[in-house]
Amino acid sequence: MQLHCIDTGVAESGDTAIPLVVLHGLFGSADNWRSHIKQWQADRRVIAVDLRNHGRSPHVEGMRYAAMASDVVALLDELDIERFDLLGHSMGGKVAMTLARLNPARVAHLIVADIAPVAYEHGHDEIFAAMRRVETGQPTSRREAAAIMEEEIDSAPTRQFLATNLVRDDDGVMRWRVGLDEIGAGYEDIIAPPDGDQPFEGPALLIRGGDSHYVRDRHRDAVAAVMPNVEWQTLEGAGHWLHAEQPEAFREAVNRFTTGS
């Protein structure tokens, strides 16, 4: 399977810094990271990946973290990238932890954004319901789709985020580009802990949002078991989408940890 990615190639500065691989969260895509990519590509090569059933990547059965990590490794092998810094947000953070545990020699620095290596309870029922309503309603504009989603989702930022997954088909109807059926069938694996039996012993950074419930102090033992050499950083005032809410502080944390700048 050939994953789609945004690959910036050689850094604009000509610097030979180690590449940065970016993995998005559930219902996200590489496109969500374009503003960060624009900043990072000046000094290093950036590869932002569309994980399976997301963005422009293929729709396939199975959402196990070992399978998604294997997809990413295959892509990096094709790009001839042996060693890299690895950043993952939310679901992408669990993919990143899995990849690092299964391929520790290839990951120079691991950065996990606002997710813990634990099983979570169901928490996306209203999102699935809203997306199914859009399928049935067959809107012809994003505004119409947003109005349909409002019947299930109160949060305007969440509706706006989901709308980034809408594309217009040949009949002018807005359709989801995500593999909604495959994601729904694999949801139990998405909320499960990451795969892998051994800890990642390399340097790791866990960035959490101070207002997010995804990573709390009660998760410290679970985090240490997977990333024993982890550093914690909290972005106060940020929620789960901390990279969008506090982009400069988020980039500063990543840059400091991976390059010391």
Secondary structure: elements and pairs:
Elements: E1 5-7, E2 17-23, H1 34-40, E3 44-49, H2 65-78, E4 84-89, H3 91-102, E5 107-113, H4 125-137, H5 142-149, H6 156-163, E6 166-168, E7 174-176, H7 180-185, H8 187-190, E8 204-209, H9 220-226, E9 230-235, H10 242-245, H11 247-259
Parallel strand pairs: 2-3, 2-4, 4-5, 5-8, 8-9
Antiparallel strand pairs: 1-3, 6-7
Helix pairs in contact: 2-3
Describe it.
- By secondary structure, the chain is an alpha/beta fold.
- 37% of the residues lie in helices and 18% in strands.
- Helix 2 packs across helix 3 (91-102).
- The termini are far apart.
- 41% of the residues are buried.
Helix content: 25-40%
The main sheet comes to: 7 strands, mixed
* Main sheet strand line-up: 1-3-2-4-5-8-9
N- to C-terminal distance: 36 Å
Please tell me the overall pLDDT: 95
- Approximate strand percentage: 15-25%
Low-confidence stretches: none
The class by helix and strand makeup works out as alpha/beta
Key words describing this protein structure:
about 260 residues; alpha/beta; 7-stranded mixed beta sheet; two-stranded antiparallel ribbon; 11 helices; 9 strands
What's a quick, concise take on this entry?
This protein is an alpha/beta fold. The chain has helices at 34-40, 65-78, 91-102, 125-137, 142-149, 156-163, 180-185, 187-190, 220-226, 242-245, 247-259, and strands at 5-7, 17-23, 44-49, 84-89, 107-113, 166-168, 174-176, 204-209, 230-235.
